[in-house]
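Lecture 7, part 2: worked example. A protein chain together with riboflavin.
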Amino acid sequence: MASRDASPSIVNLPDGSSYTFGIVVAQWNAAITNALLEGAKQTLLQAGVSETNIEVLYVPGSFELPWGARQIMKPGKKDAVICLGCIIQGETKHDDYIATAVAAGIMQLGLMSGVPVIFGVLTTNDEQQAQERAGGTHGNKGSEAAATALQMAVIRTGDTLTKKRIGY
Ligand code: RBF
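Predicted complex, written out as structure tokens:
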């Protein structure tokens, strides 16, 4: 399949030097989630985010991501929280239950807290599809999640990107 560019630009990143981010990483399928984490960190650093303004919290599995996100946004201020996980389809329907719960939990937390919570969770049919999206032929979805977090941090604090888009 031809490659698509449906995700936010990771070329024109906003200046991230004034922002603080939390990254919550599920340890199930750790080789994949660690690759997502590397992609996310690299993109934040590339945007000028200081290493000391990136806090990382590991949780056991994707199901625990919303709880971890709530925990990491408590102390101090976070401009956005990125959730990274990898849910691979098995013989039973566990993947559906977990993915649905995580997506809903992440959305709910973002709306309730006012802090953008970014869904960087792969939901794939097999490990190969996951590898392709964690630094393979389909890019790195951790990097894309970080680009989204940067955009949301800018939008939330009310400034240039939004104003530019509406023509100020
Ligand atoms: N967590 C993931 O992040 N990815 C998975 O693919 C995954 N598969 C699971 C399969 C089963 C049958 C179970 C019971 C759990 C799985 N989990 C997975 C872990 C889940 O997110 C959570 O950590 C545990 O259910 C404990 O709440």
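The first strand starts at residue 21 and ends at 26. Residues 26, 28-29, 60-64, 85-88, 90, 94, 98 surround riboflavin (CB under 6 Å). Keep this in mind for problem set question 3.
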